[in-house]
Design a protein that fits this description.
By secondary structure, the chain is mostly helical. The protein has five helices and no strands.
């Protein structure tokens, strides 16, 4: 059922954006924003509060670092990858951005003892 709901939101947003009457107004609005708007409208019609609806949207459109993506089906994995790609593009610094630095070097603070791994230690006395 949830997959059908998401498909409905996606299809409704696509139809709205491609409608000649709305194209002029929605040209600068992303498909994802229209999907969220449709989701909010449907939740409101179903009696959910704005806060409940926004919480659901946030949960569905965010990445949980603890979640095992290997256990997701193909559709859910594609959705998560799309979210990660959008987040990457939003945070990426391009050469024409004012805060862009070509060769940025950062020293990260070392809290506590550093764990060593066998694979990152130099091989002694042998070639790779």
């Amino acid at each position: 059922m949830w997959e059908n709901f998401l498909k409905d939101c996606s299809q409704a947003a696509e139809q709205m954006k491609n409608n000649p009457r709305h194209q002029v107004y929605l040209n600068g609005v992303s498909q994802q924003q229209l999907q969220k708007l449709h989701h909010l409208l449907r939740d409101s019609l179903n009696g959910l509060s704005l806060d409940q609806s926004l919480e659901t949207i946030l949960r569905e459109n965010s990445i949980n670092p603890e979640e095992d993506l290997n256990k997701l089906d193909d559709d859910e994995l594609a959705k998560k990858k799309k979210i990660m790609d959008e987040l990457f593009e939003r945070n990426r610094r391009k050469p024409n951005d004012p805060e862009f630095v070509y060769d940025l070097e950062v020293d990260f603070p070392q809290d506590g003892q550093i764990e060593s791994c066998g694979w990152d230690e130099e091989e002694q006395g042998g070639e790779f």
